[in-house]
Every structure is written in C-alpha cells, then in structure tokens.
Amino acid sequence: MDLDDILDYIEQNLKRDLTLAELSERYHYSPKQLYYYLHGITGMPIMAYIRKRKLVNAAREISLGRKMYDVALDYGFETQAGFYKAFLQCIRCTPSQFRNHNQLQQLKKIDPKLLSLRKEQENMEEIKIRKMEMNDVNSLWENIFSGNTPEEVKSRVQKNIAEMDAGNCAALVAVIDRQVIGTVLVAKSQYTLTSHRCEFMDLVVNPTFQKQGLGKRLCQEGFASARKLGCDHVISTCRGKGAEPFFNSAEPFYRAIGMELCGRIPNGFQEPWGDRNKPLMATWYLCRFSSFFPVKRRFS
What we know:
Blueprint: H1 3-12, H2 20-27, H3 31-42, H4 46-63, H5 68-74, H6 80-91, H7 95-106, H8 112-120, E1 128-131, H9 137-143, H10 150-165, E2 169-176, E3 179-188, E4 197-205, H11 214-228, E5 233-239, H12 251-256, E6 260-269, E7 280-288
Parallel strand pairs: 4-5
Antiparallel strand pairs: 1-2, 2-3, 3-4, 5-7, 6-7
Helix pairs in contact: 4-6, 9-10
C-alpha cells in the first residue's frame, strides 16, 4: 500500500467531501482494511485525520488574511459557529487569536513582555538553558515556532521528549522568567555508518534576544549534549546565498562559533513561501570536536 500516495491525495482534496468509501475504491482495499491501516499510521480514525488536516490548512489560510466565513465554506463547514468550535478543539485557540498571533509574528513586532524581560536582565547568566518540557508548549508557540499551530507545536514537543527518553537526541530551551526565548535540537544519526554524528536542528532565538550571544550559548550546550550522546561530529545546514529577503543566511554565525564549511548543495532548499520557483543554496557546516574538546577520535 502506497502510504505517501494516499496521504498526498488527501492533502490535495481537503476542500472536497472525502469519504472512506472513495479512498477504498481508489486504492483497491476494503474499507475495513484501509481504516485499520491508516489508523495505525496516523493514530486516529481516518475521518478524524482528514478533519484535522482541513482545520490545519484552514488555519494557514486564515493567517494569510482570508475571512473565516469564506474559509469555513471552502473546507465544508456549513456554519461559521460549527467551524469555530471545531477550530478551537483542534488548533487550541480561536481563529481570530490565530490570525492576530500570526500577523504579529509576520510583522516582527517586538513583544512588550519579552522586551521588558530583556531590559530587566542584568546579564546573559540570568537566561537558563535546560531540557525541553511539556509545559513549554505555549511559550514555544508564542515566541519560537510562531508559524505552526499550537497542536503542531505540542506534537513536536511530545516527539522530542520521547526521543530524549530513548537517548536519541537532546532538545534544549533557553528560558528567562518561564518564557522560552531560544531552542536547539541535537539529533543523533540513527545510521550505523554515521552514528558518530549529531545534527543541529530547530536552532532559533527570539528576535528580541538576538545578537546577545544566546545562539552561541545554545550551540555550546548543544556540543556538550552531542558528546554525552557519544558523538564527535556535529553538522548543521543553513540557507546559503540568495536567502534574502525572507531570511538572512546563518553562514557568518556558524563560522563565528568555529564550525567549518564542508559543502554546498545547489537548489538544496525549496521554500514553501515567496518565489517557489527560486530554489536556494543549502550549505553544510561541520564541527569536529577535536577543535573544541580534547577527545579521542573514534575513526581514522
């Protein structure tokens, strides 16, 4: 059974009235067989999965400024009230709250609450770096992963904590006064030939606290976590030249913390926003711990 094909078909037809019978006929499986297969993959009944995907995509359209009534009709909700209730249950906030939150982040408006914390801090030592916890979800959504829905952030945190418990990663957050203002995920490779490597992912610092050395502190803690995971190499990927105007390349930052360029991949990134016909250069940076810590190399 081609799972990717089924899920892609669902994504492409979210504005239609999809049914289990239609999917069963299209992919030549009995409704019962397809139901249990997809339930095992998604963790929920297939119609609940489709409804959730409708609401997540509706949330993104609302964040772009479309009227809630029009979006509700497009995704098959007969009343605005019904859409509102379903949205609140799935996304964990109201449509207007989601729109206002997303617009605030798109405009890069400084959060007065975070700005006040920045002014009150005497030095960077007041910012603590610790492992990610479930009670960080709301703060991560507000300050870090603002482009996601609250439910997506919750799922991400749950996955990271499960992987930490399994010894596969270290998910770190920078916190001041219970507000998460930075994060980095250090993920260990699960392939035998590269089991000595970790990768930096989700390295984000809230704009209010950028250019104060917090990114460097997160990476230093990340390097230490990589060593605890048994790794002596850390790699990271960033956007190369041409990232503007949507992003500034992080290449100068990685060079500044001592990582070395180890390769470029033309058209390695395809942004889901802006000019989708303009792929970006993906740049790989590497840290060998021999340049940071006196460790014994595992491979010649």
